[in-house]
Amino acid sequence: LASFYLVAFNVVSAAGWAYVLFLTVSALANNGVPLTRLSSYIPSTFPWSSNAKSTNALSKYLRSLLFPYIPSTYSQSWAAVAPVQSLAVLEVLHVLVGLVRSPLPTTLMQVSSRLILVWAIVARFPLVHSNPFYTTMVLAWSLTEVPRYAYYALGLLGVVPPSWLTWLRYSTFYVLYPVGAGSEALVALSTIPEWQNGQYLKWALEDWVKAGMVFIWIPGLYVMYTHMIRMRRKVLSGGKGQKLGQKPKSRAKVA
Length: 255
Fold this sequence. Notes:
Blueprint: H1 2-28, H2 36-39, H3 57-66, H4 74-86, H5 89-96, H6 104-122, H7 132-156, H8 163-169, H9 173-189, H10 205-236
Transmembrane segments: 7-29, 78-99, 111-129, 149-167, 174-193, 208-225
GO biological process, one term: fatty acid elongation
Membrane topology: Multi-pass membrane protein
């Protein structure tokens, strides 16, 4: 029963992120597909949303560099991103109850940082909705998660993943992790008021907390990056772990 549940979870998650990727790429190709029915259930503002409209000069400058080339895809993707990413909270529960053997610290770090971005930043600050770094963030997330969930689903089904899928699972992080973490930090940064000329003295406690979170993203990326490098060596470099082309080790706990 546990294996059946984990297969279903990974299949649904892979399909969800594939849909997010489709919506985002379609929007970038000026052929966005509106989620009219789903959007009615996923509002764009919430009771805890902020009406803050000011940001800092650095964020405005960085946004101006990217916006001509990568527009925001919030209106096309948000209704899918919110529920699909929220589903990942179950991954922490899986580790806590022993369904999978993933390390709790890295799982908790990745899931919590994304949930903070979705519900405490994007859902709360409408000024983020036009930010092109929202698009690069969602692209990095979806391009990372589709191979990851597909890889685990095949392993739980007892199917040897194709070598290209194994390579994607353990190689794309070299680019996607920095892009994703950098975009997350810049999205959060865009909600912080100006700090130049002593204006940080007017910051509220929340602004200081968000600034601290932006700096935490740097060591957080290092932890996740080095963890994936170790995993890649085991899988692709003939280490003691699983090798390329082999059946992936099941993440389900052995009774």
